[in-house]
Amino acid sequence: MTQPFSMRDAGAQAALASFRGGRLPHAILIEGPAGCGKSRFARLFAMSVLCRNPQQAPCGRCPACQKVAAGIHPDLLVYEGEKGKAKSFHIDLVRQLRAQAYVAPNEGERKVLLLEDVQNMTEQAQNALLKVLEEPPASTVFLLTCQSRGQLLETILSRVSVIALSLPDVETCADILAEHLPEYSREELLAAARDASGSPGLALEALSQDSKAHGHRECARRVLELLGKGQEAAALARLQPYEKDRQGMMALLEAMAAQVTNLLLEEEKKAGFSHLQLVKITAIIERITAAAYSNVGGLLLGSALCAGISQVMSETSGGKTS
Ligand SMILES: [Zn+2]
Questions:
Q1: Which of 75, 220, 232, 251 has CB atoms 3.0–4.6 Å from 310's, for a disulfide?
Q2: Distance 79 CA to ligand 1 centre (A)
Q3: Contact at 8 Å (CB) between 146 and 119?
Q4: What is the DSSP track for 226-240?
């Protein structure tokens, strides 16, 4: 079982341990800066509540723990507004969860309602939540996450126990990143940890963006190479993952345009393309990029790109004068 980042936090460990001792409040607020692992910790906590082996909860092995890990436990219900958007957690959603709170658990003795990023609740929504926190159903545990308790109404705060999580230092953050991304060097991980001010979640997000961009560059290079050798079907197969990913397709086209420009600037080696071919290919990439902006589907973009470049190669093959 992968432990969340925040399990390195002494407060988080103490909170879980004290729960094992049997003292479980009805509502717990997990507070901490962006990317510190609140959401992961909340799921681990939910696992503890629902685990069938209370002495070792969360055991990570029982059916309940495994269902929580897979995100399919019927007694763990998750509610949130729009990610990162203030006032997007509306009263309607609170009404829904309030109704759920009074429904008996499906499998065990308890159910957990996880309310993520409650700082995004409207004041109306917070007041509606307060009503259910004032008369909590015996079998329901509320887990709330938020960045700072100052963003919540005093009345809500008086009804919850707070577990405050903090960010690890940069070295520890890099250790955490290494567990998730063993392919990166220590220097790269330290740099990412510093850029994210020690937030493992934010650093992971940045690194995954980075590795996506790297993937697009690699794919663009390979597709261009295949088309240069006249292997249109193989090139098209490479583009298949982009069929439903317009943003990825745009990134790939951008990467390919940059690569063609670089080849044009090189005096001698042009990877088997002639100057004229590269000029024509640039025009094709521009045309396909414009089509991508006007909402043409990914499948069509990919095949138009491959057909266009293939045609240039067959028309002008042999014409390697630059
Ligand atoms: Zn378990």
A1: 232
A2: 23
A3: yes
A4: HHHTT-HHHHHHHTG
Kindly give the distance from the C-alpha atom of residue 50 to the centroid of ligand 1, in angstroms, as a whole number. 7
3 state SS of 164: strand
pLDDT at position 124, please?
95
DSSP element (H, E) containing 145: strand 140-146
Which residue ranges in the chain fall short of pLDDT 70? 1-7, 21-23, 317-322
pLDDT reported for residue 320: 45
CA–centroid distance, 16 to ligand 1, in Å, is 14
Q: 196: which 2 tokens?
A: 């994210």
Distance of CA 275 to the CA centre of its chain: 42
- Tokens standing for residue 206: 């940045």
In whole angstroms, give the CA distance from residue 202 to residue 177.
Answer: 11
Instruction: Answer whether 64's CB lies under 8 Å from 52's CB.
Output: yes
The CA 113 to ligand 1 mean position distance, Å, reads: 18
CA 163 to chain centre: 24
Q: Ligand 1 centroid to 51 CA: how many Å?
A: 4
Can you give the C-alpha Rg of the chain in angstroms? 26
61 Cα–ligand 1 center, Å: 5
For position 131, what pLDDT does the model report?
Answer: 93
Domain boundaries for CATH 3.40.50.300 within the chain: 5-166
Residue 107 Cα to ligand 1 middle (Å): 13
- d(Cα 117, Cα 62) in Å, to the nearest integer? 29
Domain 5-166 has CATH 3.40.50.300: yes
Helices 186-195, 170-180: inter-axial angle, 10-degree rounding: 120
> In this structure, what token pair is assigned to residue 13?
């460990």
Beta bridge mates, 115: 79, 144
3-state secondary structure 177-200: HHHHCCCCCHHHHHHHHHHCCCCH
Q: What is the distance in A from the centroid of ligand 1 to the CA of 24?
A: 17
Could you give the C-alpha distances from 187 to 177, 202, 206, in angstroms and in order?
12, 17, 15
Amino acid identity at 130: L
